[in-house]
Amino acid sequence: MSFLRTLTGSFSSPAGDNPTVAVMEAAFGELAIDWSYLNCDVAPDRLADAVAGAAAMGWRGFNCSLPHKQAVIPLLDELAGSARLTGAVNCVVNDGGRLVGHNTDGAGFVQAFEAAVGPVRGRSMLLVGAGGAARAIAFAAAVAGLGALRVVNRDAARGAELAFAVDRATGVRATSDAYDVIVNATSVGMLPAADAVPPVDLALVGPGVVAVDVVANPPRTAFLSYAAAAGATCVDGRGMLVEQAARNLSLWSGREADRAVLRAALVRAYDQG
Ligand code: NDP
Questions:
Q1: Does CATH number 3.40.50.10860 belong to domain 6-103+239-272?
Q2: What distance in angstroms lies between residue 58's CA and the mean position of ligand 1's atoms?
Q3: pLDDT tens across 211-231, in order?
Q4: Is the CB of residue 242 below 6 angstroms from any atom belonging to ligand 1?
């Protein structure tokens, strides 16, 4: 018997509304492993100290969320292909003292999308947003065989830069004005501003279209409510959150968690929040 737990956690700021701790602890319970996940509010100017502290204490790994997903990169020893492609890290694995950065947001999106509505391959996507989530989705969907991608963003130059980077890395570009997948990858529609609708031409949303929102709280955003009423198939942000958490756990422990257990924990956490 050992009184030493395996430590993991998350560095972000603000951190108070990040539900991942509830999801991870449910996974540890389901797998009956003596692990802990610490949700830490880390200011940007203390990120290097936090990373050095986690390494010194032998943490198995940690998540990075806003605003640390890019800032953490110079503090790591190595980047996995997913992080190199995306230019952002949301999961760090402490591999015998070497800190290796991964990006599981994009794979989480693809896995959740495919579980809900089938393959990404060959589809034409209109992606709204060019921040961290949008970048991860764009590269992962392109690698998964997306047929065409158009990016629109409030800061149009940032959107164009993302579209250019995906085209350069994968050859996937905007070759069509007809979209069968429309993704809100902005923060518009999150509680408490749940009535807000992202800047997308709603006339494009209708039967035959899959509307996806990365916003996880509320699950039925104003965008998805509109899309459902217009006859589109809807995929909410909770599946992506659960899938990326399950991937993080698998990178750290080599174990696979039951997605239904994680999703139930997420719903409970939001209901109590
Ligand atoms: P970033 O800050 O990196 O990017 C924010 C994006 O939203 C940018 O494209 C920004 O546009 C756009 N945006 C913000 N406010 C507005 C507005 N008022 N009008 C139009 N566009 C706006 O954030 P992230 O990409 O990390 O996160 C975005 C969302 O994705 C959040 O809601 C987050 O919770 C969610 N998320 C969900 C995950 C999941 O697993 N479900 C995983 C990761 C994130 P501009 O470039 O012009 O500023």
A1: yes
A2: 32
A3: 999 999 999 999 999 999 999
A4: no
